[in-house]
Each structure stands twice: as C-alpha cells, then as structure tokens.
Amino acid sequence: MGWPDGVAGPTGPDPRDHGAVPTTSSPVTVRPGRDADLDAVVDLERVCLGRDAWGEALVAPGLAGDLPTVSYAVAVAADDVVGHAVLSAVGDVAELQRIGVAPAWRRRGVAGLLLAAVVEHAGAAGADRLLLEVREDNGPALAFYARHGFEELARRRRYYADGATAVVMQRGLGGAGRMAP
Fold first, then answer.
1. Are 115 and 96 within 8 A, CB to CB?
2. What is the pTM of this model?
C-alpha cells in the first residue's frame, strides 16, 4: 500500500536554516520514505524528539521496507527532508508512532500535510481508527491533534525517558481514511 505521492503544501524557509527567518520559498510535498532519507530522518528524530529519538538502527529497517506493518512518509522541500511521520497499521487499528518537523518549518502546515497522508494511508490499509501518544506537557501538539479530530483515550504515566506522562489519543477513520462523522 503506497503513500500518496507528490502531495503539495505550503512554502517556507530553507530547511538547512534552523533559524526562524525564511530565506527561500519552495513547495512542500509528501512522499514515501526511502533508504536515502536515513540520515535526514535520524537527524529530525534527534532535533525533534531529543532523548526519545530513534537512532539509525531503529529507523533503517522501516525506511527499507523490512517491517511489514510500518511505513514512513517524508515531507520534502527543495530536495531536503523537512519532516517525517511513521505509521504502524495492523488490521483495524493504526498508530501514528512519530511525527516530526524541522524547527524552521513548524507552523507552516507541514505537520498537517504529514498527518493527512498518515490518515489516508491508515484508511487505505483497512484501519478504522488511528491512535497516537503525545506528551501531556506538549500543549501545541495536543491542540494540533484536537483540531484534527483526535480525542483523549487514556494516559500512560512515566511513558517517556524523562518520566513524562503520555496522553493516548484516537480518532475514527471513515472510508479511505476520512474523518468519521
């Protein structure tokens, strides 16, 4: 089951510039992750997820397609990976395992593009709901997911490496991954 390829989105700064000032504008597209994206995805993991980042040994098999239930999507601007998402889909349940966007590209719609691709892919894989965990102290992420139809399901105490609690969220998927009414 392939990811939607070439989904266009917003423009923004040069992805190599981690500052807040845009230096170039280019469209963002979402495509399936591939082996050649390994260094960029591992770097995004480190920048976006800190102590909870996945290293090369965890990322490489997913990008290579060696894990049958795991799929990677990357957001690309000017041939540079500026965001990534990881989906695990098994039967009627899918889980958004990771989503990360380079700091200079945040609040520009990149996470929304990645999430839309995840929702579409999860629905196409046969899932009827999508789960995720988010840190309870990450207010912007909680608000982002709520805006996209996710609701709190449970909490997992001391889930993260630093002891923070995870909020488990879910949303229903209607045909082809669209939000259920």
1. yes
2. 0.81
> What domains appear along the chain, each with residue ranges and CATH number?
7-128 (3.40.630.30)
Instruction: Copy the structure tokens of residue 169.
Output: 């969220």
Tokens matching residue 168:
């488990």
Q: What is the 3-state secondary structure (H, E, C) of 4-65?
A: CCCEECCCCCCCCCCCCCCCCCCCEEEEECCHHHHHHHHHHHHHHHHHHCCCHHHHHHHHHC
Q: Residue holding tokens 């993260």?
A: 160
d(CA 79, CA 157): 39
Query: What is the distance between the alpha carbons of residues 178 and 180, in angstroms, rounded to a whole number?
Result: 6
Give the span between the Cα atoms of 125 and 90, in whole angstroms.
8
Q: What is the pLDDT of residues 115-168, one digit of tens each?
A: 999 999 999 999 999 999 999 999 999 999 999 999 999 999 999 888 999 999
Residue 129: predicted pLDDT: 96
CA distance linking residue 39 with residue 129, whole number of Å: 31
Q: What is the pLDDT of residues 11-61, one digit of tens each?
A: 344 333 333 333 446 799 999 999 999 999 999 999 998 888 999 999 999
**DSSP letter (8 states) at residue 35:** G
Helix (H) or strand (E) holding 158: none
